[in-house]
Specification:
The protein is α+β, with helices and mostly antiparallel strands and about 160 residues long. It is built from four helices and seven strands; from the N terminus they run βααβββαβαββ.
């Protein structure tokens, strides 16, 4: 279940700190560094920040921004603290459907570092909504010197208004 991240701020920060020097952080930050998410205390109407919780246990963090003027959802961030837990995917999918159906966004865009275990799920979601996937080759280098692709996803939702 998605709950406001502010309710779990300290726990989210602690979980991120546990991954500080892991290779997993490159998939969240997009670079070799690590930074704790800035969890806002007040709802500004643009930033959406959620703790993903199952049975009272924090299992993930999900965030995105909405530009209401351009009708664009972007700057997505997702981190799983409980790898393989299906609840994370289900909750994120429900929120994405809310962005599409309830918020009626025109554009959804997000980025990902190649090699991310969720790439096949992102591909499937993008394809379902006739989106595009752009791949930038050798865009990011990890600590072992291996290059990764940077992937950009774009979905434009063309609606026929009545």
């Amino acid at each position: 279940m998605l709950e406001p991240a502010i309710l779990y701020k300290n726990e989210i920060h602690k979980k991120f700190q546990e991954y500080s020097y892991s290779n997993d952080m490159i998939y969240y930050t997009g670079y070799l560094g690590n930074e704790l998410p800035e969890i806002l205390e007040n709802n500004d109407g643009y930033n959406f920040q959620y703790a993903i919780v199952k049975d009272g246990k924090l299992i993930g963090y999900f965030t995105y921004c909405i530009d209401w003027y351009t009708s664009c959802a972007s700057r997505f961030g997702l981190f799983s603290f409980d790898r393989g837990n299906r609840t994370i995917g289900i909750d994120v999918y429900r929120e994405m459907k809310k962005i599409i159906n309830d918020y009626r966004m025109h554009r959804i865009e997000w980025r990902m570092i190649g090699g991310n275990p969720v790439e096949k799920h992102y591909d499937k979601f993008c394809k379902k909504f006739n989106g595009k996937k752009l791949v930038l080759t050798d865009a990011v280098k990890d600590r072992q010197g291996k290059y990764h692709e940077e992937v950009i996803y774009e979905i434009i939702l063309r609606r026929t208004e009545k």
